[in-house]
Write the structure tokens for this entry.
Amino acid sequence: MTHPSRHKRRKKWHSLYVWHRYIGLTAALFVLLLATTGLALNHYTSLGLDKRFVTNQWLLDTLEIRPPDTASSYQHQGHQTVLLEPLLWLDNRQLAGEYHSVTGLIRTDDMLILATPGELQLFSIQGELIDRLRSQDGLPNAIRRIGLSDQGRLVIETPLGRFKADRDMLKWQGWSGEAAWSTAVDIDPPRLQQLQQRWRNQALSWGKIILKLHTGRLFGNKGVLVMDGAAILLVFLSISGLWLWLRIMIRQRKHRKHRHHS
Amino acid sequence: MKAVINIHTSDVGSSLLWLLPFVILALLFYGNVWARGVYQEPDAFVQEAFDGKPPEARLLWLTSGIRPKAKQILGHEPATRRVRYWTSNGRSVWILDEIGKDQPITTGFIVNQGKLEKVKILVFRESRGYEVRYPSFTDQFNQAGLTNNMGLDRNIDGISGATLSVRAVSKLSRLALYYHAIIQKNNDAP
């Protein structure tokens, strides 16, 4: 007859085995999902997941992918820049990177100058990037607006005052004159709609979808809770697995020792 | 009942083996976290190169005569149409960017009489390949010059796991030497 405490202990261990098995079965689905999406995310760039976008309107509607209602726009001498956060267009060309503010656009004789608070981008009239100027290049920080002085020199306004650039825009000196400032303009509704559609067509990459699937966010807050639950199951499995393994190992050692002594 | 578990030292070693994956993961994570960063502000690099008294910045316009060779070195069109540099007494300083895998690596170069005097990684934004920032790698470029084929006149030992970063820095070093040769040629022109 088995000792009652040993019987109780064995029952406890058996119940841990059963829990381990069933939780393992449930977690297997999540492990598959996490492993496949994780693998895809690991090779995000090489699979081109950041460059392939979801254009299916139903999916975009379902995931509530909507462009901003309003845009910031500046115009000068037939050139226009439009910011629909975080995308920025200069004429018909979308600029690389993400932008959250634009502070002006100026056309000089041979250049287009686009300003954001922390940077000036210089383009040829044909739209080729000539240079990017930042604070490390001596550009005063936090540009509020840009304009052209009477002499046709670029001027900028910052919280520290107004500055005038030299011909190459490498040196800046304090300045107190008036300028023809670049001012924000309204964007035509058809143009806005066209850009909003372009925004929508590149708002959601397949990489983002996979990431949302990986985190559960694809199904909103409930999805996150489900993935949190899956993570807790995995933690339980790891601990129960280790515990069971340790128990077996200790028992085997004991057995070996007994056999050795006998 | 008192359970006595008698485990030999070798048993302790083997029972701790399960910790190994966690240790490896922790080490990998540690390496990646510290890989990215600004090692020296570009402005500070220029200041240091000229003992705190840098000359005024100048511009090299990448004209149609220069762009094809720059493209040949980089393997793609240069990102901008002009490059800033600082020069005095046959020495020039260049701050150049090139993408390793996904992000630009900002590197500072001092070229003296057509030879690289110093190469330093200033800003590293990639998650891998950070080993290129170590002097053991960058010192290999010291006194390297440019061959007629736009290559370096010496072999640079690579770093396993940092192939793309090594390639990016090597390309930039050739570009800095090429740009230096152009400004020297322009200075020598009557």
Remarks:
- The first strand of chain B starts at residue 37 and ends at 38.
- Chain B has one domain: 9-188.
